[in-house]
Each structure stands twice: as structure tokens, then as C-alpha cells.
Write a structure and sequence with these properties.
The chain is of the alpha/beta class and 261 residues long. The chain contains eleven helices and nine strands. The protein has a seven-stranded mixed sheet with strand order 4-3-2-5-6-9-7. A two-stranded antiparallel ribbon has the order 1-8. α2 packs across α3, α8 crosses α9 and α10 crosses α11.
């Protein structure tokens, strides 16, 4: 892709070496580990990963940056690849080591990349991902908060999420107009709830949050094309008040409602 594509994706290059070390510290790579970096850009995180991990694989879309990275870091593998389409479930951890993912994700596609990554909890051992602060807060949000939504539920179903670092605009070149934050994600040994149909669960959660001001029963009826009577009955039989709003339900409650729809 041309260099202009990088700008179109909303990428801002990290230039603060201390922040780069702090981000890599979140996954603490060792010589036994494989570290995959998403969007290495000008190499602020790449150099730190190359010093500490046994193998570094960098995914980059900008052809000019790819060539510069290959010259600057000859010991690592730089691939022309889009993290949105990468098959993360096929990532193979080294014998005796871990598979780690680190990245400063472009604002405009960060949520899409995150969505691809979180579908691979059995292949990835830990992640440190920089996102727009608003998005990071949504991912880490707990039930009952204004930022809690379908993204929170989707990610937290399989992952332990921690809002680990806040990153000021001055840490980047060019400085963005918004603040960034770094999430540390570690896979759970098993999903927080057992689901017979995860796709149906996700559809129910999306519908519930699509119209946040509506009651659960009304939002589900509108989003799933069902009668309000049917959604009221499903919620009630799940032990959930159909008059509640989506942001008050935890993952277990969503699962119980989804099983009945």
C-alpha cells in the first residue's frame, strides 16, 4: 500500500522510548517467546521487542516502511500483511515459549483488528495493544458503566482485560488530537460462560445494545425481529427483569437470555 494509506488509517507513530519499554514490559517477552507486532511503523516497539524476544514477526501494510524496517532490523521477519485479515488462530507458539502480540493499532481500524485477535484465545498467550483511549475504556468497562457495551462483552467473554497505561498525545509523531491507552489482555482458561451457540449470543448482545435507551425486552424485539412478548418471556425465564437496560446485564445474564431466544 502507498504511504498515504498509513495516514488514511489514522496511524500516529510512537516516539517515546520510555513508553515503548513500558508497553513491552506488559507482556515481558523472553528469548523463548514469539512476539508478533502489528503496525511497527518506524520501529519504536520493534527495537524493544527485538532485544528481548527470541523471534519477532512484524506485520506492516506500508511498502516504504517495510523496506526501512528490514534494513533497520535485519534479524526480524517483516511481512507485508494486514492484521485485519491475518489468521490469528493458526499462530504457533514456540516449544517452551509463548505467542505474544503487541501493537500500536491505527485508530480507524483498531476495533476491527481487535475483533480478529480476540477470536484466538487458544493461540495467543498475552497482548499489549494501544488504542484510542475511548475505545480502550469501552473494552475494559464493567457492567453498569456508561462505556460498557457489546465490545466489552465480546472481548471479556474469553479474555481478562486490564487498562494498563494511558499515553499522552506528545508520545507520538504527529501528535493525535485524542489520548491513547494500552490494554493488557490475557486469555481465560475457559470462556466466562459455556455457550451452545456463540454467534447467537453475540447477535443477542449486539441487539440489546443497539438501542441503549430502550428496555432489554424492547431492544431485543427490535434488533432480533421478535415480538416484545417473546423477549419479555425469555428474559423473565432467565431470571432477568425485562425492564432493565442492556448496560446493567453481566455476561452470565446475557448468556441465560440468549439460551432462551
Amino acid at each position: 500500500m502507498p504511504g498515504g494509506k498509513r495516514h488514511a488509517l489514522g496511524q500516529h507513530f510512537l516516539r517515546d522510548a520510555g513508553m515503548a519499554r513500558a508497553i513491552v514490559d506488559l507482556v515481558a517477552p523472553t528469548p523463548a517467546d514469539l512476539a508478533v507486532e502489528i503496525g511497527p511503523g518506524q520501529g519504536a516497539l520493534t527495537g524493544e521487542l527485538a532485544r528481548r524476544a527470541g523471534r519477532v514477526l512484524a506485520l506492516e501494510v506500508d511498502r516504504v516502511l517495510i523496506e526501512r524496517l528490514r534494513v533497520a532490523f535485519p534479524a526480524i521477519e517483516v511481512l507485508a500483511a494486514d492484521a485485519r485479515a491475518w489468521d490469528w488462530t493458526s499462530l504457533a507458539r514456540p516449544a517452551g515459549g509463548r505467542a505474544l502480540v503487541v501493537g500500536n493499532l491505527p485508530y480507524s481500524v483498531g476495533t476491527t483488528i481487535l475483533g480478529a485477535l480476540v477470536r484466538a484465545p487458544r493461540a495467543i498467550d498475552a497482548m499489549a495493544l494501544m488504542l484510542q483511549r475511548e475505545v480502550a475504556e469501552r473494552v475494559a468497562a464493567a457492567p453498569g458503566s456508561k462505556t460498557y457495551g457489546s465490545l466489552s462483552v465480546h472481548v471479556q467473554l474469553h479474555w481478562r482485560v486490564e487498562l494498563a497505561l494511558r499515553v499522552p498525545p506528545g508520545a507520538f509523531r504527529p501528535p493525535p488530537k485524542v489520548e491513547s491507552a494500552v490494554l493488557r489482555l490475557r486469555p481465560l482458561p475457559a470462556p466466562r460462560v459455556d455457550l451452545e451457540d456463540e454467534q447467537r449470543f453475540e447477535a443477542v448482545v449486539r441487539a440489546a445494545f443497539a438501542q441503549r435507551r430502550k428496555t432489554l425486552a424492547n431492544a431485543l424485539a427490535a434488533g432480533l425481529g421478535l415480538s416484545v412478548g417473546a423477549t419479555r418471556e425469555a428474559a423473565t425465564s432467565a431470571g432477568v427483569d425485562p425492564g432493565r437496560r442492556a448496560e446493567t446485564l453481566n455476561i452470565q445474564e446475557f448468556a441465560e437470555v440468549a439460551r432462551r431466544l
